[in-house]
Amino acid sequence: MRKNYLLTPGPTPLPPEVRAAMARPIIHHRTPQFQAILKEAADGLKFVFQTKNDIFILASSGTGAMEAAVANILSPGDTALVIQAGKFGERWTEICKAYGISAEIIDVEWGKAADPADIEKKLKANPRIKAVLLTLCETSTGVANDIAACGRVVKNSEAVLVVDAISGLGAIDLKTDDWSCDIVVSGSQKGLMLPPGLGFISVSPKAAKLIEGSRSPRYYFDLRKAKQALDKTDTPFTPAITLIVALNEALKLLKQDGLEAVFARHKKMAEATRAAVKALGLELFSPKDGSDVVTAVKVPAGIDGEKLVKTMRDTYGVTIAGGQAELKGKIFRIAHMGFIEEFDIIVGISCLEKVLAQLGYKFQMGAGVRAAGEVFLK
Ligand SMILES: *Cc1c(COP(=O)(O)O)cnc(C)c1O
């Protein structure tokens, strides 16, 4: 018998209301009953995305929405500017490659945020750039980019701004309209507190023009078909009915709390996590640009980072994430995204302390829990 705690950057824990909604009997999608649900979902998503733009709901993980963005706005031979500051920035490049789109790359050191001035320079130097592809929270490093500043730069060019907000949406602020984000993509299993399986994509009027002109192959993710259906409160294919029912419950919870309170809670969870790991003598991977979504921590010398993550999970039921790609074994990541409250953080830190102690790391037992507790007392 064992309790499980999920402190990973997707999937994230499910609120009881969301789980209960998924146990309801399934209904048919071409019905007035489902149309009402779809309408509620569309309105609720606009609230979370902070936009008036259309938002399409796809039956896919977040990457499907990324692919839909590229396939619908860019054509073979087009040029896109990709900001690569980690594994998920690289995914934009890979998708461009798959569609024959030439990617100009701004390589940002992993652990650092993008500099909007670099984007401005590239846009000036190459007027062929049709889209700027970047990431709200680069989950692989824990770093959040300044989307507002990037939006100000891209707004004055011909290019559209495309933001991967798969992790971060519903956790930290993202003002789609005020920050001039033409396309925002997201997924269900992170800040939105749902199981994986839904992709979301919002489209501004500037981006909608590109969708009409794209020569890329597309069928399932054809947003022209999706738009025709959306205008009739419908979907082109069978939607993920159960997940959309659950989405409305999650959106209700976010609305009840209000976005400001939701962002403030994430900020507090992040602050407590950072204080805790520092109190244990550990070093943050991104001391300057770390987000309130997920905290990346350097594995201390002499400790096996993969064993740390594995022991926490397999022996004690507390799942955090290790490092990806070049950061494998070098960092671990504690997510505080979605349905996470202060005592989830306390459990995570307490388990981290126990396993660090067992692995022979020297520190004062309880120092992390105490530091987190002090943040929560404020
Ligand atoms: C999780 C994540 C993705 C991938 O989403 P999937 O739902 O696994 O397809 C892409 N970008 C970022 C920033 C992510 O955190």
Which ligands appear in the coordinates?
A: pyridoxal-5'-phosphate
Rounded to the nearest angstrom, the distance between the terminal CA atoms is 35 Å
Overall mean confidence score, pLDDT: 97
By DSSP (H or I, 4+ residues per run), the number of helices equals 13
The CATH topology of the largest domain turns out to be Aspartate Aminotransferase, domain 2
- The number of domains: 2
Ranges where pLDDT stays below 50 over 5 or more residues in a row are none
| H/E series | EHHEHEHEHEEEHEEEHHHHEHEEEHH
Give the spatial strand order of the biggest sheet: 2-10-9-8-5-3-4
Main structural class: alpha/beta
Quick one: how many beta strands? Answer: 14
Beta fraction:
15-25%
CATH homologous group name of the largest domain: Type I PLP-dependent aspartate aminotransferase-like (Major domain)
**How is the biggest beta sheet arranged?**
7 strands, mixed
Specify the overall morphology.
globular
Indicate the CATH class of the largest domain.
Answer: Alpha Beta
Rg is 21 Å
Range of helix content: 40-55%
